[in-house]
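[recover] target loaded
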């Protein structure tokens, strides 16, 4: 995950989902879920989902960060994984003054 985290840190501070408490926006969190691709000959590789959450103080800032992340990762190879942008959704945390976009990337090794 070193290459992936390095690319994300060029956009904003980046943490695993478990490591975020008391951080100041903007920041990015990530998690990766992978499963083996099984064939009659054995494991042919791995497919999965990279989940990112981008947090910012405003919708405009969040949209700018999302654009930079998608440009950096879509169809890129990081840590031997090919990444393909799949979708995003928005969450507005008005009570704490944050906007978040959750992005999904399909992965293939």
């Amino acid at each position: 995950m070193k290459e992936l985290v390095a690319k994300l840190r060029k956009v904003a501070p980046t943490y695993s989902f478990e490591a975020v408490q008391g951080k100041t926006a903007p920041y990015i969190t990530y998690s990766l879920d992978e499963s083996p691709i099984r064939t009659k000959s054995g494991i042919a590789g791995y497919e999965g989902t990279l989940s990112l959450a981008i947090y910012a103080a405003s919708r405009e800032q969040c949209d700018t960060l999302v654009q930079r992340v998608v440009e950096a990762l879509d169809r890129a190879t990081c840590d031997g994984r090919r990444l393909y942008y799949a979708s995003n959704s928005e969450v507005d945390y008005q009570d704490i003054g944050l906007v978040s976009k959750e992005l999904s990337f399909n992965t293939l090794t």
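[recover] notes: The helical segments are 2-9, 59-73.
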